[in-house]
Amino acid sequence: MTDENLLLVDVCFERCVEELRNLLRGFGQNLCIDGTAFKSWSSGIKNYKTGFGSDDEAGSGIGEKRKCKDGKIKKVVKKCFGYLLRLIVDLDYELAVDFDVSPANSSEMRKLPEIFDEVVVKHPKMDIKTVVAEGI
Q1: I need a surface site. Which of 18, 20, 36, 133 has the fewest CB within 10 A?
Q2: Count of CB atoms within 10 A of residue 87's CB?
Q3: What is the pTM of this model?
Q4: CA 82, CA 43: separation in Å to the nearest integer?
């Protein structure tokens, strides 16, 4: 997708969110953010002749989760070459307010303030009262 197409998708999304804010009482007051990694179709290996990979924007990420099974806590490590999608969702209506896609090796903690700053800039009339972030 070209940068122009991505900009059009972003503008359409912003307009939809503003329309929802006008139609739904309290939309955007209680927000939640969560991210998930998804794989790139690329192997991540660069061509030795050109020095370029088939997906130079993707990154290698490692995620850790703790799962409880049969009363025992088990640490699960997942590796991913691809991207991290972060969604900001209205908790009351369960509708997306904003999104961010970045390389899988980017930090959710560092990106969080930047993402919410963008929400405030894009939707200055949104009255955010609560923000919940899982795993942070």
Answers
A1: 36
A2: 15
A3: 0.69
A4: 9
Which pair of tokens denotes residue 133? 């972030």
Find residue 30's DSSP bridge partners: 130
19 phi/psi in degrees, rounded to 5: -65, -40
Q: Please provide the DSSP assignment of 90-129 as one string.
A: ETTTTEEEEEEEEETTS-HHHHHHHHHHHHHHH-TT----
Give CA–CA dist 18/28, Å, rounded: 10
Asked whether 134 and 65 are in contact (CB, 8 A), the reply is no
The rounded distance, in Å, linking the Cα atoms of 50 and 47 is 6
92: CB partners within 8 A, 6+ apart = 26, 27, 29, 30
Q: Mind listing the pLDDT tens digit for each residue in 47-76?
A: 666 666 665 555 666 665 666 667 677 766
Q: Sign (positive/negative) of CA torsion 47, 52, 109, 133?
A: negative
